[in-house]
Specification:
Layout lengths: L5 H9 L8 E8 L3 E11 L10 E5 L4 H12 L11 H8 L5 H12 L3 H11 L2 H27 L8 H18 L5 H5 L1 E7 L5 H9 L17 E7 L2 E7 L9 H15 L3 E5 L11 E5 L15 E2 L8 H14 L11 H19 L3 H19 L5 H8 L7
Parallel strand pairs: 4-6, 4-7, 7-8, 8-9
Antiparallel strand pairs: 1-2, 2-3, 5-6
Helix pairs in contact: 4-5, 6-7, 6-13, 7-12, 12-13
């Protein structure tokens, strides 16, 4: 319970509350149902709480009947209502306990399904980007002060922009540019797209099923069985992978198959990692290409072409090596462990700040330089949620579960 009436509401069920930030065992009671449960009760006084408000926590037994009975009793306390999705975190944001980047990290942490997603979200939720932005904002404040002082002097002397100020703006823009070159968060959140492609009837669907460990794609001896792409999400070494089976690449007069082939070509171009089954010489150029010699267990395919990895979906030959190679290539385009990975919104605002600083460094006009620095500061305010983010708040906090 959070808010100005939280302590009174806690006392209505638990009696006298313990001292702030101490846990105590209390018997929870209601006038209607009598004893509800024996629970640990914790009290926090605002602003030194997770929401910045007075707060009370009941750590009760987890049975559904116990929880429902406590919630029913709380609903009967005057001034209480059920929290909206993400409302506790939103109050923490609005009361200055966290900034928008930390709230985004917490939302990602709740949704994390793999170890790499969990680690990346935790870095953001614990203020990894916030601390960096605070350093940038401190530099910008110093640059703003220098620019404003230069404007005052410029009224007395006709001098150009201080080369030191230009150099500092350029240096900070370069630092921001380096951050924009880092691996982004989207592949980590959405999964590394591993596309399996090649000519028809070369074992693409069988390979998908073997890697996934389950029958997800239809396998027949008839060429052109796969008409549309099939996506299979898996976790490989803690990395989220989106395995994608595609239609065999060939010329076809059949309308539905031709549509599937066109989609397959588009998926090949957008693949993060491409597994090519078929003639190695026909493999399309790709920065992370793995040539797979499929059905390597068959006598007439025992000789593997140079540069191709022999694999058998039926016997498991080469599957472990193939998955190791996929993991290595996938890891090469993901942020490093414990590194801050920018999402699209964060990168947009850092790019705005970078552009404004580059403009400030390029001008000889004091006023234009000061305006460029001010624009960079505004971009960081939007990044952290200090200003201009009302349109993103509802969408963000709506991702949280009730009461988080």
């Amino acid at each position: 319970m959070s808010g100005p009436n939280a302590h009174a509401a806690g006392e209505a069920l638990a009696g006298p509350l313990p001292a702030a930030r101490y846990a105590a065992l209390r018997t929870l009671r209601s006038e209607r149902s009598g004893i509800l449960d024996d629970a640990l009760v914790l009290r926090f006084d605002g602003p030194a709480s997770s929401t910045g408000e007075d707060l009370v926590e009941f750590q009760c037994h987890g049975g559904r009947a116990v929880v429902d009975a406590i919630l029913d009793a709380l609903r009967r306390v005057d001034g209480l209502r059920v929290a909206e999705p993400g409302e506790f975190t939103r109050r923490a944001f609005e009361n200055g306990r966290i900034d928008l980047t930390e709230a985004e990290g917490l939302a990602d942490l709740i949704e994390a399904e793999t170890e790499s997603q969990r680690k990346a979200a935790l870095v953001m939720a614990e203020g990894g980007l916030k601390r960096m932005v605070e350093q940038w904002q401190e530099k910008l404040l110093q640059l703003s002060a220098s620019a404003e002082a230069a404007i005052d002097y410029a009224e007395e002397d006709d001098v150009g922009l201080d080369p030191t100020l230009s150099a500092e703006c350029r240096a900070l823009a370069g630092e921001l540019g380096a951050w924009l070159e880092r691996p982004r968060a989207e592949p980590l959140k959405d999964g590394i797209r591993v596309v399996v492609a090649g000519s028809p009837n070369v074992g693409k669907s069988s390979l998908i099923n073997a890697i996934a460990g389950k029958e997800r794609a239809i396998v027949t001896d008839i060429p052109g069985t796969t008409r549309d792409h099939i996506e299979v999400p898996i976790a490989l070494g803690g990395i989220p992978i989106l395995l994608t089976d595609t239609a065999g690449l060939r010329e076809s007069d059949e309308l539905v198959e031709r549509i599937g082939i066109d989609r397959a070509r588009a998926l090949v171009e957008g693949a993060d990692v491409l597994l090519w089954l078929g003639d190695p010489e026909e493999a399309p150029p790709h920065p992370r290409l793995v040539r797979v010699h499929s059905r390597a267990d068959l006598p007439d395919r025992s000789a593997s072409p140079a540069g191709s990895l022999p694999v058998s979906s039926s016997t498991g030959l080469g599957l472990a090596r193939l998955m190791e190679q996929i993991s290595r290539l996938a890891a090469s385009i993901l942020p490093g462990e414990d590194a801050v990975a920018l999402n699209r919104r964060q990168a947009t605002h850092i790019e705005e700040a970078c552009g404004s600083l580059q403009a400030a460094a390029a001008t000889e006009d004091f006023v234009l330089a000061a305006e460029g620095i001010r624009a960079a500061r505004s971009a960081f305010d939007r990044l952290t949620g200090r200003a201009g983010v009302e349109d993103v708040l509802d969408a963000l906090f709506g991702r949280f579960c009730l009461g988080k």
